[in-house]
Design a protein that fits this description.
This protein is of the alpha+beta class. The chain has five helices and eleven strands. The protein is 22% helix and 26% strand. The termini are far apart. 35% of the residues are buried. This is BPL/LPL catalytic domain-containing protein.
Length: 248
């Protein structure tokens, strides 16, 4: 465990560099900061967080024999660990969802984001770094952000940050070991898919592979991380990261 830093460029970037340079850095090592000067989100986006109000940890995981095609398991287990945590802090836990691939929603608002990067060596994943941004006590977001929320806004009161941090780390430590082959079960993927945002309802999406908008219904996610969407013609479309955009 690395001590909390008052300010850092990015906990994710810093931990990834440490893991690259130090093979002895153990699985489970993490760093956190009160503030990130260049916080990172998915697709090259930045992550907004006021100083000292939210959780911004990054966690190192190492699995001896995890293949690249199995690496989405880490995203699955991280999302479930965050959901496990948030269920204790929201009035309606059934309204927590996973917006594929890496966002956590409460109702239609984003409360957390996940950024995961891997170092591949030969046939296996050498290590992975999980970056998490969890909005705990943020009370004012920039207007450019479309739909953010926080535990403070949901509950209309400040939430003990240390308590949420301890709960999050405990839940992740319970979940993440299950990525290894001897522990992995198909029921874990089923649990993840049961929590998918917009699952089973018709919405408009943009196909970034072929171009054009279409009406579709999210059905499931494959173990490799491909989103499966049924269109109005009854055809199932499969999407990797950055190949589909949620519209209406």
């Amino acid at each position: 465990m690395q001590p909390s830093s008052p300010s850092i460029e990015s906990t994710y970037t810093h931990l990834f560099a440490l893991a690259e340079s130090d093979e002895t850095l153990p699985s489970g090592a993490f760093i956190e900061a009160d503030f990130q000067t260049q916080g990172r989100g998915q697709r090259g986006n930045s992550w907004y967080s006021s100083r000292g109000l939210n959780l911004l940890p990054s966690i190192l995981v190492r699995y001896p024999y995890l293949c690249p095609h199995q690496s989405f398991r880490i995203s699955i287990l991280t999302a479930l660990g965050i959901i496990d945590t948030l269920q204790n802090y929201v009035p309606y836990p059934q309204n927590l969802f996973i917006k594929w691939p890496n966002d956590i929603y409460y109702n239609d608002c984003k409360i957390a984001g996940i950024l995961i990067g891997h170092s591949i060596e030969g046939l296996y994943v050498r290590f992975s770094v999980i970056g998490i941004g969890l909005n705990v006590n943020e009370y004012s977001f920039p207007s450019i952000l479309p739909n953010p929320t926080s535990l403070r806004l949901i509950n209309k009161k400040e939430i003990p940050l240390k308590e949420v941090r301890e709960e999050l780390l405990k839940r992740l430590s319970d979940r993440l070991p299950w990525a290894e082959g001897k522990y992995w079960k198909s029921e874990i993927l089923s649990e993840y898919c049961s929590l998918l945002y917009r699952k089973g309802t018709w919405h408009i999406y943009e196909d970034l592979k072929l171009g054009g908008e279409f009406l579709g219904k999210i059905e499931t996610v494959s173990e490799e991380g491909f989103l499966q969407v049924r269109d109005k013609k009854g055809e199932q479309r499969s999407f990797a990261f950055k190949e589909i955009a949620y519209l209406h």
